[in-house]
Amino acid sequence: MKDESRLSVLKGISLDVTAGEIVSVVGQSGAGKSTLLHIIGTLDKPDSGAYEFNGSDLTGMSDRKLSEFRNKEIGFIFQFHHLLPEFTALENVMIASMIGGRKESATATQLLEEVGLRERMSHKPSELSGGESQRVAIARALVNSPGLILADEPTGNLDTENSNAIIELIFNLRSKYGKTFIIVTHNEEFAGKCDRTIHLQDGLVTAISDRKELKIPTQANNV
User: Fold this and answer.
1) Where would I find the H helices in 41-159?
2) What is the pTM of this model?
3) Dist CA 87 CA 27 (whole Å)
4) Residue 202 belongs to a domain
5) Residue 211 belongs to a domain with what CATH number?
6) Across residues 31-55, what is the average pLDDT?
7) pLDDT band at residue 101, thresholds of 50, 70 and 90?
């Protein structure tokens, strides 16, 4: 009997991302962008298929192991920052390392300096602008030195000036640290600057474009 309540968000996607790439994911609302990001970030599990990270198969890994992996290997940047209001900028960045049993105060300080917040470390989120809050979120994503940074609309809540500053910052951090970024965005200018752009529609990859050419997949592969 067919399960009428079942909703297939992603429908057979196969992707390879190379270390050091900045990849954007674009598509209309409901195309499956955030779901794809959640699966890559191990926040959700696919119903079938496999997920490998640096040669390690994450398929079937326990929730506890996935949590440990996520804390060490993946950083997250969200559209609305999700900073804890009772803590300072420095404390918000440190929290990610403290969850993993460390207290990277020196690293957190260095990262806040690098994102231009040397004078704002002791300020709480209510005392920061939207652009400053997003810079704190970027520093927090980097504090554990993960290999992969996932960003969901990192400029979606910012004005043009702050959006451009965040875009420039992400590319500068990639150049300095060699991090891999996968970014969901509706910002066409941002997407166009990335090494590759994954086009999603109705849960399928319809095209993969880079700065030089547009590649149309011949068929949808399994995850």
Assistant:
1) 63-73, 89-99, 105-114, 130-142
2) 0.83
3) 35
4) yes
5) 3.40.50.300
6) 81
7) low
With cut-offs at 50, 70 and 90, classify the pLDDT of residue 34: confident
The helix or strand, by DSSP H or E, that contains position 151, with its residue range, turns out to be strand 148-152
Task: Say if residues 19 and 147 touch (Cβ distance below 8 Å).
Answer: yes
Q: Is residue 7 part of a domain?
A: no
Please give the structure tokens belonging to residue 102: 């460390």
Number of domains into which the chain is organized: 1
- The label of the residue with tokens 């057979």 reads 12
CB of 166 closer than 8 Å to CB of 154:
yes
> How far is residue 95's CA from residue 90's CA, in Å, rounded to a whole number?
9
Q: Residue 82: is its pLDDT beyond 90?
A: no
Q: Is residue 9, in this structure, part of any structural domain at all?
A: no
What CA–CA distances, in Å, run from 50 to 15, 59, 211?
11, 6, 29
Determine phi and psi for 150, rounding to 5 degrees. -110, 130
Q: Which domain holds residue 179?
A: 22-84+146-215
In order of 119, 152, 188, the CA distances from 80 in angstroms are 22, 9, 20
Amino acid in the structure at residue 89: A
Q: Alpha helices, DSSP H only, in 55-88?
A: 63-73
- What span, in angstroms and rounded, lies between the C-alpha atoms of 5 and 20? 40
